[in-house]
Known about the structure:
Blueprint: H1 10-13, E1 19-24, H2 29-38, E2 42-45, E3 51-55, E4 58-65, E5 69-76, H3 81-90, E6 96-101, E7 107-113
Antiparallel strand pairs: 1-5, 1-6, 2-3, 3-4, 4-5, 6-7
Amino acid sequence: MPDESGDLAPEWTDISNNVCGILHGHRDVAPMAERFERLGWRSRPSSWYGHEVGTTWCEVELEPVDGQDVLLNGVVAPSRFDDLAAQLTRCGATTYTLELYDEDDNLLRESRHEG
Length: 115
C-alpha cells in the first residue's frame, strides 16, 4: 500500500485530534519515526524527544512516556484508521492500543495489537 507523501490534506487540517494510542515497549521515538520515513511518510523532530510523522491522510505526534512507551496522538482520516494500525505493525510496534474519536470525543473504534 503506497503512501501519499506530502502535507496533510486540507480536509483534515482543521479538525481536532481524533486518534490517540500507546505503543508499548518503545523507549526511543527516533527509530520509530525513521521506520515511518522508510515507508514514505514525512518526519521531523517536534520536541526534545518527540517526532511528528505524517502523510496526506494522517499526521501524528510520537512522544515518549514513562521511559518505556510512546504516546501517539493526532489526526487520521477515519476511513484510514485500519491503515494506520497496519503501518504501526510495519514499523515494529508489536503491542499497542489505538483509538479513534468523533468530533464530540466519543470513542468510535479501538484497535489492540498484542505481539
